[in-house]
TrEMBL record:
The lineage of its organism: Bacteria, Bacillati, Actinomycetota, Actinomycetes, Kitasatosporales. Pfam families: GYD (PF08734). This is GYD domain-containing protein. It comes from the Bacteria.
Length: 106
């Protein structure tokens, strides 16, 4: 199942909601959304700095990740970035594939 790194930053409205319901409330909401599309939350951490939250989630496919991303962003309470995570075995497979490529100007 594909894994994604989610980095999220709350807007001021989202932060007010977090203060009202707490971190465990957000965890429940995230788990409900992810599991509703056949996924699983592997890890969820609150952070300091540019991002307020980082997560690793598994989804059956990229379309499920896109559906969640669009819905969450439409709420206006959080900005997110989703990065696909590639396993070492997948990179080894990629290295074995032959790619025909001509560099610009070559």
């Amino acid at each position: 199942m594909p894994k994604f790194l989610i980095q999220a930053s709350y807007t001021s409205e989202g932060t007010k909601g977090l203060l009202k319901e707490g971190a465990s409330g957000r965890r429940e909401a995230v788990e409900q959304v992810v599991s509703g599309l056949g996924g699983r939350v592997e890890a969820m951490y609150f952070t300091f700095g540019a991002d307020d939250l980082v997560m690793i989630v598994d989804f059956p496919d990229a379309v499920s990740m896109a559906a969640v991303s669009l819905t969450v962003k439409a709420s206006g309470t959080v900005q997110t970035r989703a990065t696909p995570l590639v396993t070492l075995d997948e990179i080894d497979e990629a290295v074995r594939r032959e790619v025909s490529f001509r560099a610009a100007g070559a």
